[in-house]
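Format notes (please read before filing issues)

Several people have asked whether sequences and C-alpha cells are stored in separate files. They are not. Every record keeps both together, in the order shown below: the sequence lines, then the C-alpha cell lines. Line labels are part of the format and must not be stripped during preprocessing.
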Amino acid sequence: MKGAQTLQSIEREVIGCTKCPELRTYCLQVAAEKKRAYRDWTYWGKPVPAFGDRNARLVLVGLAPGAHGSNRTGRMFTGDASGDFLYPALHRAGFASQAASLHRDDGMELHDCIITAALRCAPPQNKPSPEELRRCFPYLVREFAVLSNMRVVVGLGSIGTKAAIAALKANGFEVERAAFAHGALARARQGARTVTLIASFHPSRQNTNTGKLTRAMFDAIFTRARELL
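Then the structure lines:
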C-alpha cells in the first residue's frame, strides 16, 4: 500500500534524525550508562518512531520518550509507568492485543490505533525545549497527512494536545477553539472531512499516583473514542 510505504519512510527518517544534537548526545549517554535495573539491556538509544496500525482511525499523540522507557525499548510508551497505565486502558477498550507492552518483540499489536508523539527523543527531565519541539514537528505533520483514515485524535497531556492541534491546522483543518481540560472535545474540519480531538491528562506517574488521572477517567477517554468511531 502506498500510504503504508509513506508512513514507513517517515519512520525511517525519524530513527535516523539528527536535528537536535543535544538530544542525540543525551539519549546515547543514557543508553551507555543505563539504569541499574536494566544493566543487561541493550538500549535503543535512537529517536522513537510511531507505533501501531498504519490504517488506524484513532491516533494518540504523547509528549516524548522516557529516558529509560521508550529510549530503552524503542517503542512508544513502552517500559515505563506511563505505558503501564496506557496499554491496559487500550486493551480494555479493544485497541490493543494485550495489556502489557514490555519490549519490541513481545507480540503487542494495536488495532485501529497508532501512537506517536510531539518529540521523538527523550529530553532531560522529560522537558523538551520549544526549539526541540519545533524541529520535530514536521514529522507529526507528515504522519497526519498520510493517516488518511484518521477520525479521532487523543492528545495525551497539554503538549501532546497542542502538537495535535497544530498538526491538524498544518494539514488544512479548521480546529474549534477549546481550552485544555481532561475529556474536552474539539472538532477539526477540512471540507467534508471531520476529525474529533479529545484532550486527556497525560498518564504520567505524577498524574496517576496523585489521583489526578484515574483508571475510570482514562477509560472514559477511550470509551468516547470508540463511540465516535
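For reference, the curators noted about this record: The chain has one domain: 2-228. The two ends are 23 Å apart (CA to CA).
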